[in-house]
Specification:
There is one protein chain. The chain is an alpha/beta fold and about 180 residues long. It contains 5 helices and 11 strands. The two termini are about 35 Å apart.
Length: about 180
């Protein structure tokens, strides 16, 4: 839990605003797994990966901020930090932490201007452009949830803010190579 602020309410009440921090992402780098919370900060470093059903794998080539517990995963002025913060904010907006981490296999932010969200069922949500990323992630997830089973198992949902499409082709594999 992270306290956001404490307000004194008269006559004799105090209001504490807080955010519950959950482990959301794990990034493998230099023989360690960095577990990141929904605040984009490192919660712990591990020698072994967490169970894939309890955390989302993050794929990124960006430089780590410092790599210590409590620090931001990436430098706060970096594009990677902004991208991860926006994605985590969108996932938090959906408010179902346990279900979200079970639905998503990994998030790949290695290609500039793109984010790929690989769902455990098989489909990939490809997000084009980082402007309005928060809304694009929420929209992509809502399309996924409303899709029929056939569209959840394979293909690509592309969200660009303008035109949103579905193709049965796995564009992630085509554009980024083997993701297994």
């Amino acid at each position: 839990i992270r306290v956001r602020n404490i307000e004194r309410k008269f006559p004799n009440r105090v209001c504490v605003n807080y955010v519950k921090i959950f482990p959301y992402l794990q990034l493998y780098r230099d023989g360690k797994y960095y577990v990141c919370g929904n605040d984009a900060r490192i919660m712990e470093m591990r020698d072994e990966a967490m169970d894939a059903q309890t955390i989302i794998e993050l794929k990124s080539d960006a430089t780590l901020a410092g790599g210590q517990k409590g620090e931001a995963l990436f430098p706060t002025d970096s594009a990677a930090h902004k991208t991860v913060t926006e994605i985590l904010g969108a996932l938090e907006q959906i408010q179902y932490h346990n279900e979200i981490v079970e639905l998503i296999r990994f998030i790949d932010i290695r290609k500039d201007g793109f984010a790929y969200v690989k769902m455990d069922a098989g489909v990939t949500i490809k997000i084009i452009g980082m402007d309005g990323l928060f809304d694009k992630v929420v929209f992509g997830m809502s399309i996924y949830v409303r899709s029929d089973d056939a569209h959840k198992k394979a293909g690509t949902i592309t969200v660009s803010g303008g035109t949103n499409t579905y193709t049965p082709e796995d564009l992630y594999q085509k554009e980024m190579g083997n993701y297994q």
